[in-house]
Amino acid sequence: MGGFFRRYQNLLILAALVVLTLSILLSNLKEKSSLNAVERVAIAVLSPFQDIVGWSVGKASLAWENYLHLVDVKKENRKLGRSLDRLVFENGLLTERLKHFERLESLLSFPKVSMTPFEAARIIGRDTLGRVKLLIINKGAGDGLKENMSVITHRGLVGRVVRVSGSASKVLMITDVRSAVDAVVQETRNQLVASGSNLQTLEVRYLSIGADVTEGERVISSGLGGVFPKGLLVGALANIKKEGDSLFLSARLEPAVDLDKIEEVLVLKSSPSDIFSKDDWP
Amino acid sequence: MKIIFYVCLALLCFIVQTTSFHFLSWLRVYPDVVLALSIHGGMRWGKIGGLQFGGAVGFVQDLLSYGVLGINMLSKSLIGFTVGALREKYISDSVLARVVIIVSSTILDLMIYRTLSGMLIGDEIANFDSKAAIAQSVINLVFTLLVLPVIMMADRAIDRRLSRRQDLFHGKSFLD
């Protein structure tokens, strides 16, 4: 018996490891949360170091970029000044329209949209190989974060929280193949689903063939998917095509946020249903 | 001491890989430090050591990612085992041999990852993208060829230090 084990020792160890790996794989498929605790420990151990290294690397790259940008700063300053004037003008018009809307809202006794509480977080890591479109942020359960909370920047939607540990969380970006956002075209209100495809742009699905849409039109979340609140900017339509006998238009969606370059995000600390709270209904 | 060195090395690799490597991406592909570690494991300790070390670092890589746990563990342990087995029987220490090992390991890793993700997630992720495979092979090749000698040098330095200490314990001076 001992001779058999000695003779096939290498093969037996290999077989044991393969069986162990496959059992982890299968148990994980069956019950997704079975290894959550180990995952949490791994993130908890690494996140403080990632925080320090990520911060230092971020500062170094910022210093380098700032130095490079100094070259064109005067030209850009003038350009920004012009856009600021235009935005101040637009802001005045929009404030007036908002007041008008608020008056109508109170007249119709519509529910008031609550100000959603949020948590600002810094990106301290990404997926090891970029195969999964994943971000690791420096806020976790200790800061009140929970799974499925939406993550945004001031430009638009980034993704959702998928794993939470004490002081860090994993965020799955909208470009990942496992992500899908139920959305509408802001202008025409045509419905669509924006699915991640592990590329820089998202795939547009179920956009009706009769939809009167043009490239560059803004797409916002519809709030119907149960994960992302209504009204968050997802991106702009691109490459709209009619394909054969399909009932739907083929198109891509360019994310509003440059997901390769973001450094800080905001986590919305309430679910879509909480945004219209029950108390707000008349 | 050796164990501490390798635990610290693995930790450092994971920290650097998750925080800084997106700056080094080429064609949206990053160098895979864990693959370099698995290859080193196989070359340094043979098939069983390579299998165990590859499996351990692959498991941590899975924990830091999202999705199905175990894919990287399986691919990295098989790479460690294969490299160890080849090293014991056929392969010399030449640069050409290393190039062959790194490129074939990258392709094996990609094939295992894409096949299993395709089977388990069932999406376009399974499509084998030859352009991405070439990019990953090139970037891994350059990176691993640069990193492997550094790891081996550090490893040998620790070996020397340990043997000196042993000599001191046995009454010999390291100057002998």
Question: What can be said about this structure in brief?
Answer:
Chain A is α+β, with helices and mostly antiparallel strands and 282 residues long. Helices cover 36% and strands 26% of the residues of chain A. Chain A has five helices and twelve strands.
* Assembly status: heterodimer
Alpha plus pi helix count of chain A: 5
Share of helical residues of chain A:
25-40%
Overall 3D form of chain A: globular
Mean pLDDT of chain B: 81
Topology pattern of chain B, helix = H, strand = E? HHHHH
Summarize model confidence as the mean pLDDT of chain A: 81
Major sheet characteristics of chain B = none
Helix/strand/pairing class of chain A, anyone? alpha+beta
Q: In words, what does this structure look like?
A:
- The complex is a heterodimer of chains A (282) and B (176).
- With 282 residues, chain A is α+β, with helices and mostly antiparallel strands.
- Chain A has helices at 2-7, 9-30, 36-69, 73-108, 272-275, and strands at 118-126, 134-137, 150-152, 157-164, 169-173, 180-185, 191-195, 202-208, 218-221, 233-242, 248-255, 264-268.
- In chain A, the strands form two sheets. In chain A, strands 1-2-5-4-3-12 form a six-stranded antiparallel beta barrel. In chain A, strands 6-7-8-11-10-9 form a six-stranded antiparallel barrel.
- The longest helix of chain A is centred in the N-terminal third of the chain and has 36 residues, at 73-108.
- Chain B is mainly alpha-helical and 176 residues long.
- Chain B has a domain at 32-150.
- Chain B contains five helices and no strands.
- In chain B, α1 packs across α2 (33-64) and α3 (71-89) packs antiparallel against α4 (95-120).
- The two termini of chain B are 24 Å apart.
- Mean pLDDT of chain B is 81; it is low at 172-176.
- At the A-B interface, α2, α3 and β1 of A face α1, α2, α3 and α4 of B.
